[in-house]
């Protein structure tokens, strides 16, 4: 059955579908970055509110700023912006059609339609999932990179920007001129202090072309911090077949695990849906949740995905079935990451490590090591290096974290230990590969990336251990290095 509004009532009974009148929904949110994660997470929370009779005036208008987003728009439009979500529990599977999205802005150069849509008074939240590497942040200083060519362009051409952030600034300019008022900017990316980072990005970019507008945005718009969590693999032939097995033809279905979490700072200048009625948590302690999730889950992903790639293990669940990689995960988490994490009301750090172990082990979730290892140049400084620094400050060991960094260096050589080639998997792959080749002979050359490691190259407690591990990896292999660490 082809998925669209006209076939909703004819779908198989096993598929949960919207019970609300989609034709009566009105927009309240523009969401930029309509990837799988958004459709399995934020869109689902809003859908569940609508199922209870709430938030009928908060429907989502999708948006994107890259050419490939137009392909997604066309696919979504052909099925009335509906998405089939397939939950993959280890013991069962279920399907649900989510209907909280009602439109998708055409993707054109200069982003005129997006700017105009965000400037309309019904839009009260502009949300984003553009990945942690998409905020033009200099990793070394954590400040906004005003020298990036796209940012330079947007500052010089504020009415026809290239970036999502330039489009947001342009829309806010129109809203101020028209007396519409501000909206909330809501980052839904895996960044610690993501709301603060979004504020920094928007205000700094605005100041480059219009200081008065920048002051108005800073004084009137809000940018709540949040923590988001759900494992959502990429969609491929397997996922398309899952949808067909349930009796629905969906060109863009989404599979996901049976766990979600969304913790949000309650700071919305123009109102918000009551997401807490659908299971989200509003909290003044988002930072503690962020640290737990980013260090243990996202950091744990980096611990196992690079090792998995080097050793030819294709999936995250496969890594957890691999006795050495799983043991590496457990030891690094418990001895070097967990001690830096505070408890939150729902979990102690110990409980959360066990939860993540179980989630990573779900064999139904075919999440590839390649996907998780992507963009290490952003993820290592975001998810691993903070644990290194806090452990060093506390006088604790960083043996395992240094080993993981050495495995990443070995991965970036671009050749697995079985001799197969690693296709480029980072925006800066060529630079990483060149340094990895140098590090074969001079291991500490890898630590010269100050935008990732800062001054850690000068700290013997990390640099010497890293050097020893990389020498061991090249002399004896990655498994032997892991064995040595596990025995320590």
What descriptive keywords fit this protein?
single chain; 488 residues; alpha/beta; Rossmann fold; N-(1-d-carboxylethyl)-l-norvaline Dehydrogenase, domain 2; 2 domains; five-stranded parallel beta sheet; four-stranded mixed beta sheet; 20 helices; 14 strands; 47% helix; Mannitol_DH/Oxidoreductase; 6-PGluconate_DH-like_C_sf; Multiple polyol-specific dehydrogenase; NAD(P)-bd_dom_sf; oxidoreductase
Describe this structure as you would to a colleague:
This protein is α/β, with parallel strands linked by helices. It folds into 2 domains: 5-284, 3-Layer(aba) Sandwich (Rossmann fold), CATH 3.40.50; 287-487, Orthogonal Bundle (N-(1-d-carboxylethyl)-l-norvaline Dehydrogenase, domain 2). Helices cover 47% and strands 11% of the residues. The chain contains 20 helices and 14 strands. It has helices at 36-40, 42-51, 67-78, 112-119, 149-156, 164-178, 194-209, 211-220, 237-245, 286-310, 316-321, 323-337, 349-360, 369-373, 376-393, 399-411, 429-441, 450-453, 460-476, 478-487, and strands at 15-16, 27-32, 59-63, 83-89, 92-98, 101-104, 125-128, 137-138, 143-144, 184-187, 226-229, 254-256, 261-264, 281-282. Strands 6-3-2-7-10 form a 5-stranded parallel beta sheet, sandwiched between helices. Strands 1-5-4-12 form a 4-stranded mixed beta sheet, with helices on both faces. Strands 11-13-14 form a 3-stranded mixed beta sheet, with helices on one face. A hairpin with a 2-residue loop joins strand 4 and strand 5. Helix 5 crosses helix 7 (194-209), helix 16 (399-411) packs across helix 19 and helix 16 runs antiparallel to helix 20. It is globular, with a radius of gyration of 23 Å. The termini are far apart. The mean pLDDT is 96. Residues 285-467 form the Mannitol dehydrogenase C-terminal domain. GO terms for molecular function: oxidoreductase activity, acting on the CH-OH group of donors, NAD or NADP as acceptor. It comes from Celeribacter marinus. Keywords: Oxidoreductase. This is Multiple polyol-specific dehydrogenase.
């Amino acid at each position: 059955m082809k998925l669209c509004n006209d076939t909703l009532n004819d779908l198989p009974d096993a598929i949960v579908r919207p019970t609300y009148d989609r034709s009566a929904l009105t927009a309240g949110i523009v969401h930029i970055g309509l990837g799988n994660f958004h459709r399995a997470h934020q869109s689902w929370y809003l859908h569940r509110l609508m199922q209870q009779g709430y938030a009928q005036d908060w429907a989502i208008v999708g948006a994107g700023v890259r050419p490939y987003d137009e392909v997604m728009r066309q696919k979504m439009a052909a099925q009335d912006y509906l998405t089939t979500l397939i939950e993959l529990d280890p013991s069962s599977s279920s399907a649900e059609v989510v209907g909280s999205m009602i439109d998708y802005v055409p993707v054109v150069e200069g982003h005129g339609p997006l700017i105009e849509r965000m400037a309309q008074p019904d839009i009260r939240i502009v949300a984003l999932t553009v990945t942690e590497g998409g905020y033009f942040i200099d990793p070394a200083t954590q400040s906004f990179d005003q020298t990036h060519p796209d940012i330079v362009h947007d500052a010089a051409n504020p009415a026809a920007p290239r970036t999502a952030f330039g489009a947001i600034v342009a829309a806010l300019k129109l809203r101020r001129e028209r007396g519409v008022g501000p909206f909330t900017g809501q980052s839904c990316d895996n960044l610690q202090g993501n709301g603060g980072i979004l504020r920094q990005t928007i205000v700094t970019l605005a100041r480059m072309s219009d200081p008065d507008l920048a002051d108005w945005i800073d004084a009137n718009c809000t940018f709540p911090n949040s923590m988001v969590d759900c494992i959502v693999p990429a969609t491929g032939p397997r996922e398309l077949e899952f949808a067909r097995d349930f009796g629905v033809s969906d060109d863009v279905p989404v599979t996901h695990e049976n766990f979600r979490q969304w913790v949000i700072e309650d700071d919305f200048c123009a109102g918000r849906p009551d997401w807490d009625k659908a299971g989200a948590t509003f909290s003044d302690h988002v930072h503690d949740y962020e640290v737990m999730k980013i260090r243990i889950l996202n950091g744990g992903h980096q611990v196992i995905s690079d090792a998995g790639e080097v050793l030819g293990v294709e999936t995250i669940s496969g890594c957890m079935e691999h006795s050495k990689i799983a043991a590496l995960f457990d030891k690094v988490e418990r001895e070097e990451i967990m001690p830096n994490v505070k408890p939150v009301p729902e979990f102690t750090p110990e409980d959360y490590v066990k939860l993540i172990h179980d989630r990573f082990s779900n064999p139904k979730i075919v999440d590839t090591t390649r996907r998780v290892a992507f963009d290490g140049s952003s993820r290592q400084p975001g998810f691993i290096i903070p644990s290194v620094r806090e452990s060093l400050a506390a006088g604790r060991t960083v043996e395992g974290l240094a080993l993981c960094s050495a495995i990443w260096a070995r991965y970036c050589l671009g050749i697995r230990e079985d001799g197969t080639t690693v296709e480029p998997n980072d925006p800066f792959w060529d630079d990483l590969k060149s340094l990895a080749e140098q590090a074969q002979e001079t291991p500490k050359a890898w630590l010269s990336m100050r935008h990732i490691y800062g001054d850690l190259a000068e700290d013997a407690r990390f640099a010497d251990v890293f050097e020893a591990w990389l020498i061991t990896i090249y002399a004896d292999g990655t498994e032997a290095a892991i064995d040595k660490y596990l025995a320590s």
